[in-house]
Amino acid sequence: MKPLSSFSRRNFLRTLAVTGLASGSAFAAPTSTAQPFNEVHDLVIVGSGFAGLSAAYAALKAGVKDILILDKMEAFGGNSCLCGGLMSVPLNPKQQKQGIKDSVELMVADMTKAGRGFNHPDLAKKFAENAVNICPMLDECGVQLMDKVIRLGGHSAPRTMVPTAASGGGIVVPIHNWLKKNGVQFRNRSQVIDLLMQDGKVTGVLVNCDYNWKDGSSKKEQRIGSRGGVVVATGGWGQDKDFIKTTMPVYSLLECTSQPGATAEMLKALLKSGCLPSMLDMYQLGPWASPDEKGAGPGSFFADYAFAEGMA
Ligand SMILES: Cc1cc2nc3c(=O)[nH]c(=O)nc-3n(C[C@H](O)[C@H](O)[C@H](O)COP(=O)(O)OP(=O)(O)OC[C@H]3O[C@@H](n4cnc5c(N)ncnc54)[C@H](O)[C@@H]3O)c2cc1C
Asked: Confidence class of residue 8 from pLDDT cuts 50, 70 and 90?
């Protein structure tokens, strides 16, 4: 992957999450585009967390003009907003300013060791190589970071950037505001329930409008078209006990720190369209946050630092 700033429009469209992945499926066919759309955009992104915001930033930089981000919740930002916002990035500018030695290879070795070798090797390498590409976006959108990087558990070098707000909200809010200022449209209470397909290509999404996550109700269904494919950035499904039961039954008994909208309906839509994600039965369990605090409360600050010194 190239740095965000040099992402070309063609490359971006080629790397969209689901375009072109939807043929030869063993699952039931996704909803087809028989009826007209209620509205059409250049690019529709589903989910307004780090992934959705980064996709919108990359698309804008690639020259895409009319971008719509849909989120089913009342508040934007998903887990990204409530998380600790700690970003482990080898060779980041703050780390280099402090004269800390690090490398992509060291990060991959750390991830592999901490992941007990279960990691997807290509994805781990891609992640370590490209993490530094978020830095221009953070700068341009005005995300405030602490001067020093810290060392988290499992990392053999201090390489973790911390927002001054000590929360993912300190990253999400400035990027959200910057994107809005630059013309990206955001729409909340819009639950995407399916991908719309034509001739094996994703052409849009089926949306429950005025969706109420508390009771699952919605006012009407809309078909929203997307000329440049659809980016699905709907995060995890830690609150979807029924789905967890099918992949790792014992974990469905555990409490979870994810926001209530972390459910699997879009994952199911992707599976239905022929996408085959890897390692669906791998879940992150750790001492970094407490379910009692419903997110990253004070417990996470204690756990993070104790964890770096070997407590787990
Ligand atoms: C308590 C806590 C602390 C954490 N701390 C850290 C940390 O310090 N560092 C770190 O790297 N990671 C941390 N994580 C993990 C991190 O939060 C996630 O990996 C990251 O936020 C995922 O970003 P995302 O954009 O993929 O998903 P999200 O931020 O969850 O965004 C997905 C969005 O999609 C929306 N959505 C879902 N389904 C639909 C649908 N059908 N239609 C429309 N919208 C939909 C959701 O409402 C949500 O807004 C933490 C997680 C938690 C829960």
From this structure: very low
For residues 35-42, average pLDDT: 93
Domain residue spans of the chain: 7-83+166-281, 86-162
The CB of 171 under 6 Å from ligand 1? The reply is no
Give pLDDT, residue 6: 35
pLDDT of residue 63: 97
pLDDT of residue 311: 56
Cα distance between residue 150 and residue 166, in whole Å: 13
The Å distance, Cα 199 to ligand 1 centre, comes to 32
Pocket test for ligand 1, best of 48, 80, 88 (most atoms within 8 A of CB): 80
**Quick check: CB of 226 below 6 Å from ligand 1?**
no
Per CATH, the number for 7-83+166-281 is 3.50.50.60
